[in-house]
Amino acid sequence: MTDITRDVVIIGAGAAGTTAANQLRKAGLTVAVLEARDRVGGRLWTDVIEGAMLEIGGQWVSPDQDALKETIEELGLETFSRYREGDSVYVGPDGQLHRFTGEMFPVSAETEAVIAEITERLDAMVAEIDPDKPWEHPNAQEWDSVTWDAWLRAQTDDDEAVRNLAFATGSAMLTKPTHTFSLLQSLLMAASAGSYSNLVDADFILDKRVVGGLQQVPQALAARLGDDVFLNSPVRFLEWGDEGVVAHADGDLTVRARYAILAHAPVLYDRISFVPSLPRRQHQLHQHLSMGFVIKVHAVYDRPFWREQGLSGTAFSPYELSHEAYDNTNHGDERGTLVGFVSDQNADDLFTLSAEERKERILESLSHYYGPEAKNPVVYYESDWGTEEWTRGAYAASFDMGGLHRYGADLRAAVGPIHFACSDMAGAGYQHVDGAIRMGRLAAANILAADGS
């Protein structure tokens, strides 16, 4: 049995947990980071599959993600731009492929006008939203009582416009059907990126990658902590009170501390038995949060053949099984990699099929963008975070209808000595590594303030 004492015990060794631990250590406090998995990184995971380096989890860096960019620079990591030279492609409701350049995809002039008008309206609404406190907007309750799909369909009867406007926050980000979350939740998603226009701009949101993979961020931060990181140590019981906390983890590991930070997805809080139980408010709050679901598809080819056709690799369609796909070729790699995404109900439906049928369906969808060569990758892999015991979905948790304005203000509130930090509760950088780092910094700052450090 191992029984240790620290100032702060941190549960979860992802970007939030390792950031918080380093901030606390710099301020002179002692820490222990307990991680359930056999690796550091949480929802960041770079692995070699059949000889190909794949970023199984999060990977992109956008220009507004200052916390992440600062961390990358401080760690001495390099970034490179996503390949985007050439034409993008769009598949319309008639199943026809359309090549285009620029931000606006090829739809009819009428549909383009509708999309532009509603986008302008959304940008104006988002500008009024504080991403850290969306529930404080005067219309928060009203906006949290109508679904994203219903609101859009109340603006126009142009179905193609609705589908294209909807999938930016639905399939692409929250990875839930658009009738299952509110307008307010959608506005928060956009506000976290600065505007709705930013959110739908692939060149903005998917700007750069880290050479060697984004998992290096938490790995490098964890390396600085040395023996204070404990892998394969899921916390089963957490005693808490005025004097502090006692965390009981697998492997007969006990950590006594003055504070705790839960730095993992909120859907996993119920894996820990709290003694005494958490307050009623938290019990209710946590039941109104759930993960979305997306299959991230990696297809590696002997060369980036689409570039020979003058294609950038950027492709999307609300009518396709893979609703978006991009050139995801690694830095300096002669081979070409495409990454595609299948979300929400489509992802559920695919997992009723055999692995071979699923692969065939997905590659068929990619071939509608890139041609028949897309059906023959040399390496094929599906990131299925829904089966991950310590994640249970992707990309992050969001509220059900009405939950955000009702419980949002309590999401980051400490409970006695217990603090919370992860990308799921961020304002700016919500659902992204940038948000995880921001929340790690915030939790550390709050503990330091409470501690008088």
Automatic annotation (TrEMBL):
Q: Does the keyword NADP apply?
A: no
Q: Which GO terms describe its molecular function?
A: oxidoreductase activity
Q: Per its UniProt record, what InterPro entries does this chain match?
A: Amino_oxidase (IPR002937), FAD/NAD-bd_sf (IPR036188), Flavin_amine_oxidase (IPR001613), Flavin_MAO (IPR050703)
What domain of life does the UniProt record list for this protein's source? Bacteria
Required co-factor(s) are: FAD
The record ties this protein, via Gene3D superfamilies, to: FAD/NAD(P)-binding domain
Residue span(s) of domain Amine oxidase: 16-448
Q: List ligand-binding residues for substrate.
A: 341
- Specify which residues bind FAD according to the UniProt entry for this protein: 35-36, 235
Alphabetically sorted, this entry's keywords are: Oxidoreductase
In the record, the note on similarity to other proteins reads: Belongs to the flavin monoamine oxidase family.
Matching entries from PANTHER family are given as: AMINE OXIDASE, AMINE OXIDASE [FLAVIN-CONTAINING] B
- This one is known as FAD-dependent oxidoreductase
